[in-house]
Design a protein that fits this description.
Length: 31
């Protein structure tokens, strides 16, 4: 149970980091 929970946390964390990275990349002004 604990291992499965930790795996889910890692997956969620990675997913969130990817979304944040894409959002920052898209919101950067292109001059």
């Amino acid at each position: 149970m604990v291992q499965w929970y930790n795996v889910n946390i890692v997956k969620i964390h990675c997913y969130v980091m990817i979304i944040v990275y894409l959002c920052k990349k898209l919101t950067l002004p292109k001059h």
